[in-house]
Design goal:
By secondary structure, the protein is α/β, with parallel strands linked by helices. The protein has nine helices and seven strands, in the order E-H-E-H-E-E-H-H-H-H-E-H-E-H-E-H. It has a seven-stranded mixed β-sheet with strand order 1-2-3-4-5-6-7. Helix 7 links the parallel strand 5 and strand 6. Helix 4 crosses helix 5. The longest helix has 27 residues. It is globular, with a radius of gyration of 18 Å. Bound molecules: adenosine monophosphate (AMP), fe (iii) ion (2 copies) and zinc ion. One fe (iii) ion (FE) binds next to loops. Adenosine monophosphate (AMP) binds next to helix 5.
């Protein structure tokens, strides 16, 4: 029998992915996945469409990738299987999304001052109702010819963290976000804690485990072999679930080239089935 294949980190055009949730589900089935989690940034707006498109044999895990901060730096927390109606978590994500819009407008102003021919109307059309993020701004910069490709916009010259057109935005601290997800019955898992720029030190992870963190995303394309080993040890010592996922954004690549001959990153990294079972057992929302 073929092994069960579980990808717990995927984006749609409800946030900064390029494909509609139904298309993501179609690609997940085509990639031979058994379980896929939709984890858009700060929204669950794509879940209903994804669910409606599910073919037999494919399971959708409802999730979200929450924007958080650590000492003023942007970091990410995956959240699974929480109550979508939880008032506190809803209020928090609404605040994050509102500030994303405000911030994107401010970044458009900076980009214009720097000579790029972009407008908020253009960015808004690219985002098309999605939770707006830097990838949408990057696409506008590329369309204006300011950079060759969207991924080239993430530098000090443009919209890389701290760059000339970068503007900060609101995000909750990690411990607070972990608490909100747990209070909503969900399972919080640290996203790619060794991604360049998004690093979360070991001692912080230890503290978060005390605060209710349930897992660590170990299998992520940004992590090299030694980082995977170290994070696996750490997860085991703290009794945390070990997850993995592709962080697929469709045809938009956040700084990561696709493997040769691959039409999408879905299933490029996966979660061990036994760890997935542990994660399912941790939800308190039924
Ligand atoms: P934001 O949350 O609006 O600050 O945008 C962050 C998003 O930008 C991430 O979720 C990635 O999808 C994308 N991103 C971050 N860093 C890079 C990079 N170096 N190259 C391309 N995309 C990136
Ligand atoms: Fe993203
Ligand atoms: Fe992320
Ligand atoms: Zn992601």
């Amino acid at each position: 029998m073929a092994a069960v294949r579980i990808d717990l980190h995927v984006h749609s055009n409800a946030s900064d992915g390029t494909d509609a949730p139904a298309e993501v589900i179609g690609r997940a089935a085509a990639a031979g996945l058994d379980v896929v989690a939709l984890t858009d940034h700060d929204t669950q707006a794509g879940i209903a469409e994804g669910r409606a498109a599910l073919p037999p044999g494919l399971t959708l895990v409802p999730g979200m990738e929450l924007s958080c901060q650590l000492d003023g730096r942007s970091v990410h927390l995956l959240a699974y299987l929480f109550d979508p109606e939880d008032p506190a978590l809803r209020a928090e994500t609404a605040q994050i999304r509102d500030d994303r819009t405000y911030r994107a407008k401010a970044m458009v102003d900076r980009m214009r001052e720097l000579g790029a021919d972009v407008t908020w109307e253009q960015v808004s059309a690219i985002a098309d109702g999605a939770v707006v993020g830097r990838p949408h701004l990057a696409r506008a910069l590329a369309a204006a010819g300011a950079v060759a490709a969207p991924a080239d916009a993430f530098t000090a010259d443009w919209i890389g963290e701290g760059g000339r057109a970068f503007v900060d935005r609101y995000a909750p601290g990690l411990a607070r976000a972990v608490g909100l997800v747990r209070a909503a019955g969900g399972v919080p898992v640290l996203a790619h804690p060794r991604s360049p720029g998004y690093e979360i030190p070991d001692e912080v992870i230890v503290g978060l485990a005390d605060a209710g963190l349930c897992g660590i995303e170990v299998f992520h394309s940004d992590h090299d072999q030694s980082q995977r080993l170290r994070l696996t040890q750490l997860a085991k010592s703290l009794n945390l679930v070990i997850t993995g996922g592709s962080d697929d954004h469709g045809s938009y690549l956040p700084g990561r080239p696709l493997p040769e001959g691959s039409d999408g990153g879905l299933g490029a990294e996966t979660t061990p089935p036994a760890e997935y079972e542990r994660l399912l057992a941790l939800t308190e929302f039924k």
